[in-house]
Amino acid sequence: MKKTTGNRPGRPARLSRELIVEAALRGDVETLTMRELASRLGVSHSSLYRWVPDRDGVLDLVSEVMVERLLPEGEPGADDWREWLARLARSMRDEFLAVPGYAAHVARPHRHHPESFGRLRERVVTAFRAAGAGETDAELSWQVFGFGVVRWLGAAGNEPGEPSFEVFLETLLRGLPVRSG
């Protein structure tokens, strides 16, 4: 009996994870609709639903790609954890602000993709652990760092006299990690 690989004869797939994400990133993710995305991809609306269940599924794919793009190489260590976090924050700034609506979307309360943002959280907690923070303080520091950077990016350019990102980042990192008790 011949084993099947799951591929069916016929036309090759016109969609892929990469194509869907690339098309989603070409416009404002805040106002993105499944019909608009299908149109950008040149496929039927029902074809798109074979790849992703809904708009949240598209945003999950976008989050996966964003986290892959912005995580710095290597593990943060005791000597370079601040520099590692600064590289991460600058990468977040560059990637989030390059996509219209993405920083504002991430800054608002919503369901984050558990795997991609879990990877991000894990790496940032590792940086704070390398800085000497205990587990509880490392988790609190992740929350302060993540919330601070994302909120700054979500409001970027909307506040008169707001500090530059570099001033904000330097001040934030100077106060981290959190030291409880």
Automatic annotation (TrEMBL):
Gene3D superfamilies (alphabetical): Tetracycline Repressor, domain 2 (1.10.357.10)
Domain of life, source organism: Bacteria
Keyword Chloroplast: no
Pfam families: TetR_C_1 (PF02909)
Domain Tetracycline repressor TetR C-terminal: 74-137
GO molecular function: DNA-binding transcription factor activity; transcription cis-regulatory region binding
Any one GO BP annotation for this protein: negative regulation of DNA-templated transcription
Keywords: DNA-binding, Transcription, Transcription regulation
InterPro entries attached to this UniProt entry: Homeodomain-like_sf (IPR009057), HTH-type_TetR-like_transc_reg (IPR050109), Repressor_TetR_C (IPR004111), Tet_transcr_reg_TetR-rel_C_sf (IPR036271)
Name of the protein in question: TetR family transcriptional regulator
Organism listed in the record: Streptomyces cinereoruber
